[in-house]
Amino acid sequence: LADAVTVHLVGAGPGDPDFLTVRAHRLLSQADVVVHDRLVDPRVLELVPALAERIDVGKRPGWSGTQDSINGLLISLGSGGGSDRVIVRLKGGDPFVFGRGGEEAAALANAGVPYEVVPGLSSAIAGPASAGIPVTHRGVSASVTVVAGHRQGHDDTDWAALARVGGTIVVLMGVEHRGAIAQELLDGGLDPSTPVALIERATWESQRTLRATLGELGHVSVVAPAIIVIGEVADMALVGHSVSDLILATD
Amino acid sequence: LADAVTVHLVGAGPGDPDFLTVRAHRLLSQADVVVHDRLVDPRVLELVPALAERIDVGKRPGWSGTQDSINGLLISLGSGGGSDRVIVRLKGGDPFVFGRGGEEAAALANAGVPYEVVPGLSSAIAGPASAGIPVTHRGVSASVTVVAGHRQGHDDTDWAALARVGGTIVVLMGVEHRGAIAQELLDGGLDPSTPVALIERATWESQRTLRATLGELGHVSVVAPAIIVIGEVADMALVGHSVSDLILATD
Fold first, then answer.
1. CB contacts < 8 Å between A and B, how many?
2. Separation between Cα atoms, residue B32 and residue B6, nearest integer Å
3. Structure confidence by residue, pLDDT tens digits, B7-64
4. What is the DSSP letter of A55?
5. Partner A, chain B 205-244, Cβ-Cβ below 8 Å
6. What is the C-alpha to C-alpha distance for residues B150 and B160, in angstroms, rounded to an integer?
7. Most B CBs within 10 Å: which of A144, A150, A241, as the mutation test of the B interface?
8. What percent of chain A has pLDDT over 70?
9. Which backbone phi and psi does A135 adopt, to 5 degrees?
10. Looking at the partner chain, which of B13, B129, B161 has a beta carbon nearest the beta carbon of A165?
């Protein structure tokens, strides 16, 4: 397209604006249009210039937004001329980890609209870290599998095989089906005493971490969205405590 | 410790300084001491003030650095007084994804030294992204497993089970044992035609991507360090092409 504008598919990370990448921070600060979902931390949106257009495509009454309509919106913005405009499609976490960034990138490519993918911290890793949990740890866990739990029972994941891999399992969007997920992993051979951590609203100011065992997972009272960590590392709590925050300029 | 200084365990991400987090960028710009490994992109070290002390603890002639000696160095720096000093332990990628950040955090905690873990983009996700590969993609891959390949045959990973999980497999530090890894996954039932991508020096200026199949993996000529992506997504190449880079201020 002769008059095309780059659409930047930008990962917002898990919430705290300090955990944006330098490039994401710069793009947001110079944005003319930001297309975002419901689950973006308000502190991140505060970086966007006051006069920029914000388009919320999250699920809500009155918006019948399917992925197709979001793709169409991005194509329209990127075809619209004005090559000095900065167009940001902001996605929680990383665009390429259950973010549908690949679908949006493919749609833009097919329409001849230039795009750039800007990776972000995935909540699957930074979420557990904010609760002091390393997803791998020498002598404890030599792999980490990140899996979506919202289609449990209808997806292509072999949970029984996953139970036998031997490393950490991080389930995103798994709160609703946590009982069924636990049962499949138990059936696959994981011990009911396997440690589990549930991190509600990771890195948000309202973050809360719950600890349980795999046998208890189905009965834990937890509010979505939450990240579920399953494996020996879930017992760890390397949260640290900084004494020098005050001396750092906040530029 | 009364006189302790916070040791910041900071993820450097995959290389390009634009992919540092805002917090990592700020800490490096204000650092008094930076302890780093060999594999840090020189462009990242350029952010450190000229007068700061740089301590290279990477493997090299004359340095007999074990993990214990690195832990001891960090404890010593954090116990040394001068609470206005900014001490950064810089690690490639993310400290908690095969970064031994958990070990260093635990050592500091045991010694009573305050610390902070600053997550970084893991090369396991941002590396494939830089080659246009989404590690998950709706309808193609519903999970991603990140596993270290350098201890293949001596670790606790059940590669045959991993072959049956059904999602993307990302192998870090797997170049040396790529033939044996491929064989275990084939024995576990993966098809020899399964797509494979190998990304050398991801996000560095010298990045190079090779494509192959699982059947060919053992014979691919590749230079370490490289990230190995195994699964249907490895065929994708959503690299985009930005037209608006020039108009972004580089602050």
1. 268
2. 12
3. 999 999 988 899 999 999 999 999 999 999 887 888 999 999 999 999 999 866 656 6
4. E
5. 233, 236, 238, 240-244
6. 17
7. A144
8. 89
9. -70, -25
10. B161
Reported as a single tens digit per residue, the pLDDT across A91-107 is: 999 999 998 999 999 99
Residues 6+ apart with CB under 8 A from B69: B57
| Mean pLDDT taken over chain A | 90
Judged by CB atoms closer than 8 Å, whether chains meet at B21 and A27 is answered as no
Token pair recorded at residue A181: 């997920």
Q: Which one of A79, A125, A187, A190 makes the best mutation probe of the B interface by having the most chain B beta carbons within 10 Å?
A: A125
Confidence of residue A241 (pLDDT cuts 50, 70, 90): low
Q: How far apart are CA B218 and CA B186, in angstroms?
A: 12
Are A167 and B151 inside 8 Å of each other by CB? no
| CA nearest to B146, candidates B111, B117, B122, B175 | B122
Nearest to B102 among A114, A236, A248 (CB): A236
Binning chain B into helix, strand and coil, the percentages to the nearest 5 are 30, 25, 50
B152/B157 Cα distance (integer angstroms): 8
Taking residues B215-224, report their average pLDDT.
Answer: 96
Q: In A, which residues are within 8 Å of B162 by CB distance?
A: 143, 161, 165
pTM of the model: 0.93
Window A:133-192, CB contacts with B under 8 Å: 133-138, 142-148, 151, 155-158, 161-162, 164-167
The residues of B that are catalytic are 37, 59
How far is residue B77 from each of residues A84, A245, B80, measured CA to CA in Å?
47, 17, 5
Average pLDDT over residues B136-141: 93
Residue B61: phi and psi, rounded to 5, are -60, 135
Neighbours of B148 (CB within 10 A): 20
Mean pLDDT computed over B151-161: 81
CA-wise closest residue to B95 among B73, B120, B74, B71: B120
Cβ separation A84–B244 shorter than 8 A: yes
B187/A160 Cα distance (integer angstroms): 18
Can you tell me the distance from the alpha carbon of A42 to that of A239, in angstroms, rounded to the nearest whole number? 24
Smallest Cβ–Cβ distance between A102 and the set B158, B238, B245 belongs to B238
pLDDT digits (tens, 9 = 90+) for A69-95: 999 999 999 997 666 899 999 999 999
Number of other residues whose CB lies within 10 A of the CB of residue A164: 17
Find the helix or strand (DSSP H, E) in which B172 lies: strand B168-172
Partners of A148 on chain B (C-beta within 8 Å) are 136, 142-143
* Spatial CB neighbours of B237, under 8 Å, sequence gap ≥ 6: B131, B132, B133
